[in-house]
Design a protein that fits this description.
alpha/beta, 8-stranded parallel beta barrel, 29% helix
Length: 250
């Protein structure tokens, strides 16, 4: 299978074990159980949780989102503000404005630049944006949400890259870009929807073989692009928490 060709070291070699990156649940009023579950002591390692108020920070502070973000941060969990890069169509000023509102209202720890462009020509503008985000928030954790492998230079501009975001039917046959072997697994994230429960172990092995230490797998689907598969927890949440917590066999 193509994903067996990776020469990555395992996450154990870097000292960082596989953990969750939560792409963003529905609003806390719609998904209160999901937000509450994240702060329960038995939840597995959470690398970060994305806060997406209204396709961004919204036009005014939302008290429900403020409370949810506060509980996460009080539990020592990193909260990232969701910024839509629209594949390079949004301006530098718009993205920085979103980031500033996230900081002012929700005290976020960093940002996910969703729908981040992948081309070499867009890299200077993304690098400029990331540099500014780190200037307005010291130690900001910045994740570039490409959803596929971008031009390699992006890896030098952010803490992490989302190099896969899509359905299980694509993931199980996916191939890792050779250049990723130059970086440790803690630089890469995989988001996969439509993963059947019986294939969880296989999905986790693919992530390890491809060198991605931050993952989010769910049995929810996008119903042909009609729904957001990340808005609710997977039906096997307890099971995958158990697998991540105890480590995954090679």
């Amino acid at each position: 299978m193509p994903h067996l060709t990776s020469t990555h070291t395992t996450t154990h070699a870097t000292g960082l074990h596989t953990g969750f990156g939560i792409p963003g649940f529905a609003h806390p009023l719609v998904a209160p159980a999901e937000w509450a579950e994240l702060t329960r002591p038995r939840t597995g390692p959470l690398h970060w949780v994305v806060l997406n108020v209204a396709d961004g920070p919204g036009s005014r502070p939302d008290p429900h989102c403020l409370a949810a973000a506060g509980r996460l941060r009080n539990a020592g969990i990193r909260v990232l503000g969701h910024i839509d890069a629209t594949y390079g169509a949004r301006s530098f000023g718009e993205m920085v404005s979103d980031a500033q509102r996230y900081l002012d209202w929700y005290k976020v720890d960093g940002f996910l630049l969703d729908r981040c462009p992948t081309e070499r020509t867009s890299l200077p503008e993304i690098r400029r944006t990331v540099t500014t985000l780190r200037a307005i928030r010291d130690d900001a954790h910045v994740v570039l949400g490409h959803g596929t492998h971008p031009y390699p230079g992006y890896a030098e501009s952010a803490d992490q890259l989302v190099t896969f975001s899509g359905p299980w039917s694509d993931y199980r046959w996916s191939q890792v870009a050779e250049w990723t072997a130059d970086y440790p697994p803690d630089r890469f994230c995989h988001f996969v929807h439509g993963v059947p429960g019986p294939h969880l172990d296989e999905a986790l092995r693919i992530a390890r073989w491809q060198g991605a230490a931050t993952i989010y797998f769910t049995d929810r689907t996008d119903r042909g692009g009609r729904t957001d598969p990340w808005e609710t927890m997977p039906g096997y949440w307890d099971e995958i928490v158990s697998r991540i917590g105890t480590g995954v066999s090679e």
